[in-house]
UniProtKB/TrEMBL annotation:
Subunit annotation: Monomer.
Amidohydrolase-related domain span: 5-332
EC assignment: 4.1.1.45
Protein name: 2-amino-3-carboxymuconate-6-semialdehyde decarboxylase
Pfam families: Amidohydro_2
Signal peptide bounds: none
Family named by the database record: Belongs to the metallo-dependent hydrolases superfamily. ACMSD family.
Amino acid sequence: MTKRIDMHSHFFPLITQEEAAKLDADNAPWLAPTADGETGMIMAGNRPFRPVTRPLWDPARRIEEMDQLELDIQVMCATPVMFGYRYPAKTALDWAQRMNDRALEICSFAPRRLKTLAQVPLQDVELACAEASRAHAAGHHGVQIGNHVGPRDLDDGDLVQFLTHCANEGIPVLVHPWDMMTDGRMKKWMLPWLVAMPAETQLSILSLIMSGAFERIPRNLKLCFAHGGGSFAFLLGRVDNAWRERDIVREDCPNLPSSYVDRFSVDSAVFDEGALRMLVEVMGAERVMLGSDYPFPLGEQQIGHLIDGHAGLSYYAKHRLSSANAREFFNLADEAVTVA
């Protein structure tokens, strides 16, 4: 029986500057490892973007750390800077296909323990649907998308069409915040990640609820939002109150907003016992999955310890959060995995 499945982790392959230039010589992301190969810098053209460590691209090192963490399976998805939504759709399609093939190559190192989600050129719904289906047939366990494409949120007609396609094809979807809202006031202390990123995720969820989009999307869609759903659970009471008191809030939303929590899942990356307790109370134990944001420093460093050591969670809840929910969500085989 699988004990721990981390369904939210990232990868970034050893993309060369020459390969990135095929997408955009000035801004496309690539990886510049240090001489010892233990760390590296994600570059955007000639500009440093983010320092990273070897597990992001090296499956052998990733498996070593998974063993140390007593982690059975990780589901990997692209680092969001890889999305390529700003580029012409056919150029982005070629990029997504190459990145998706690279992801499967990484997983081939340990296929029972490493799984992956595809990326798609979400700026073109037809191409995005086709690549989601191609990648799923090739071995990806779902797709990861950004929470918006430019000014278009998830209630946009094309994005609703994409989600409907995934529902009809049985393709799970992870929504990850990216390209965070900011007008320049959040300049320091990683405030875009600490303030805007949770707000982006809440915006995504509410755009589906308040617009009535969930009424148009099949109920069988497997949809998950990263980072515990951002600020959604904590502010849900405020949203319900607004729906009750203001007709302009409920204009397109036929039901109480809190009644839609059975339409999606969230990961457990909230880093606090009280926050996790509230998240499980709001969402239900069947709709929260262990997710770490590995291997980034803002992720859970001792993956699964918040769940395992939580005095307020039942054995049933811990089992659901640690593995059972992800196994069902991503259609992972219930196979024994030996952890060193």
